[in-house]
Amino acid sequence: MSTRRTGYAIVGTLILASAVAFVHAEQLKLQRGPVGATRITKHFSPVCRAGPACPASHLALLRFRLRTGARLELTLVDAAGATVRTFTPPGGRRYSPGLVKVYWNGRTDARRPAPDGRYRLRVALVGNRTITIPDPLILDTKPPRLRLLSAPGRLPVRYATNEDANVFLAVHPVAGGRTHILRGHRGRVVVPAALVSTPATLKLVAVDRAGNASPAVAAGTTG
């Protein structure tokens, strides 16, 4: 065989090998993984006061769908990959196909409060592979800091927070009666004219995404 023909043969072999590898890679992409339909509590505080942004259970949900039955070891790991909480017994637990749920109370295996930070659920299929679900659970136990920017009693009420939070203004009539709760938007709370003429005390509260509430901040009075 001539040198030219040998070169052609080598090039052809490389092209064929590349084509086979490409097809194999595409087939792997089409295969569904063993874990899907994940649902992880995004922001979680085990110490917040129960309310619309804070579940009364004070538990974070970590859920996924298992496509085929398997023995699983389920652990929660921190940003460095270290195990913080173990949800299954040694050697794992057998799960049937379907939804798999575990709940976390914010404590470590030593029953101590875990530090604030990002955590992920690690799913080990015993004897097969280990998958770390990319969706993070953010543990946040610190309430937001809220500052009144406008002068007390001046409307609209202007404020600032040190983190993303919902801010609410409580308008409580001095003579008694129904307290109106108004929600802030872009650093201010607009009080309707119907409420301005009635003497009332104003108080601000910020609630972060984990449900932690700031101390109430007096914002003056109306009327």
Description:
The chain is elongated. The N and C termini lie far apart (102 Å). Helices cover 14% and strands 40% of the residues. A hairpin with an 8-residue loop joins strand 16 and strand 17.
Biggest β-sheet strands, sense, barrel: 7 strands, mixed
Number of helical stretches of at least 4 residues: 2
Instruction: Note poorly predicted spans.
Output: 11-17, 19-31
Strand content: 35-45%
The topology string of helices and strands comes to HEEEEEEEEEEEEEEEHEE
Overall pLDDT score: 88
Would you tell me the structural class of the helices and strands? mainly beta
N-to-C terminal Cα separation, in Å?
102 Å
> What is the number of E strands?
17
Helicity level: 10-25%
Radius of gyration: 28 Å
Cα shape: elongated
SSE inventory with pairings:
Blueprint: H1 3-30, E1 35-40, E2 43-44, E3 60-66, E4 70-77, E5 83-86, E6 93-95, E7 98-104, E8 117-125, E9 130-132, E10 137-139, E11 146-148, E12 157-161, E13 165-173, E14 180-183, E15 188-189, H2 193-196, E16 200-208, E17 217-222
Parallel strand pairs: 2-10
Antiparallel strand pairs: 1-3, 3-7, 4-5, 4-6, 4-8, 8-9, 8-10, 11-12, 12-15, 13-14, 13-16, 16-17
